[in-house]
Amino acid sequence: MKHIAIVGAGLAGLTASVLLTEAGYEVTLLERHKTPGGRIRRVSAMNGETFIDWGQHLMLGAYHHTLKLLDRLGTRNQLLPVTEATPFVTQDGKRRPYRIGRLPAPLHALPGLFHLSQLSVKDRLNLGRPMLAAKIQSRLRPVKLDRTTALDWLRRHHQTPAAIRDFWEPLALATLNTPLAEASALLLAVVLSKGFFARRTDAQPLLPTGTLHDLLLQPALDRIRRKNGRMLANCRVTGLEFRDGGAAGVQTAEAGTIRADAVILALPPWALEPVLKTSPALSKLGRITTDFEPSPIVSLELWYDRPWLRYPYAGLLGTKAQWIFNHQANGSGGGYRVSVVISAADDIELPREAFLETVIGEIRRYFPEARGAKVARHMLIRDFRATFRARAGLAEKRPRPETGIPNLFLAGDWIDTGLPGTMESAVKSGFMAAEAVTKENPGMFHGRSL
Ligand SMILES: Cc1cc2nc3c(=O)[nH]c(=O)nc-3n(C[C@H](O)[C@H](O)[C@H](O)COP(=O)(O)OP(=O)(O)OC[C@H]3O[C@@H](n4cnc5c(N)ncnc54)[C@H](O)[C@@H]3O)c2cc1C
Q: Which of 252, 368, 446, 447 is the most buried (most CB within 10 A)?
């Protein structure tokens, strides 16, 4: 049986580990932290009384690879479709509901868009233009589209400043974690054509009933262990071992050298760089990471003394807080918790008090029903490197899982999945890397197909 070393127990590394152990390989998963999950890890909250996710995550029905993984793990039923309308709340306190229509695709998107009454009727009708162009241009002219910023592309499709401010910018921040002025038009078009304008079920928002640890991480680890795999936690990979010009194992700070027949580096670009720097054989590969810059997300977790939010989640327009999620509705997290998300938060280093004061003030202003409720506890989560910045011109630079170095592969949400830095991209990259391992090493294949 052949041995694969997989570096990084984030979603990408865990997916590759599940698939390869199921296919009959012996897998060692190496994780530098004591807990698995990377950016979807759990953290202890309320003085250890409960666990919450390292930042709120929302999924879509279009996350086909993630759903396939959940089917393998048997936990898909822990992911609930949000069937209620999502309100966009504006400064005047009005709630403008966005709901997926009952019509067949792509018409299901239209009633929802038409109810966005923060926009003029003309602006609402015009939203259809980029939606239609997205489908065609992302297929026919992907390279040209990627070199264009989403802002330029939207302007070319007759989007007014009001439509950009009140619809497109919040959408780009939520899905690409990158402002429109920088973002790739191709990635925005992919979001529109795979999510909003694909099948009705693809546009369906999905929320976990508990933590992502319970949904994905623990079941994945249990599966890996049952199938001849192991995870070494607190084990940082510092470099690679080579034999005959190919990867032959990893060097670790804590467990010395671990030999393997192939290595998958399932790391974000900023964690990959120090590993690649350690060997001249990897210098060419090292250069690819320099084009990728991180984009931050701030999450503010607020525990209230009483329930007040009526929706599973809501969008806020014209505020620092962009989305607010209700954990009373899906039962996770303990107490009356809401999670506030601020994507591409360039002011991430503001003092904690400034975030608290601004966001709690905004909630009171936008939701009169919150005015009588008191914040009993809070927790501020700042992730400086939540995703890669989905900049225009990056598509051609995203690497394939095959590195050109025998037996060395890449995975992670930033590789060439064609998707923004999301859970779906990470899982898809895990599928791609596992397939590349089995394809490049047909003699190594001992089990059933992926
Ligand atoms: C706050 C926040 C909110 C988000 N919201 C959403 C959302 O709503 N929807 C969505 O789809 N996505 C969202 N994302 C993005 C999503 O979480 C990521 O795209 C995905 O989890 C990335 O997984 P990954 O495996 O590629 O990388 P990572 O999760 O970064 O995994 C890499 C792993 O490698 C380990 N590692 C690093 N260096 C070494 C080393 N030298 N040796 C050993 N191990 C090492 C790290 O500790 C880590 O565990 C969000 C992310 C954040 C942070």
A: 252
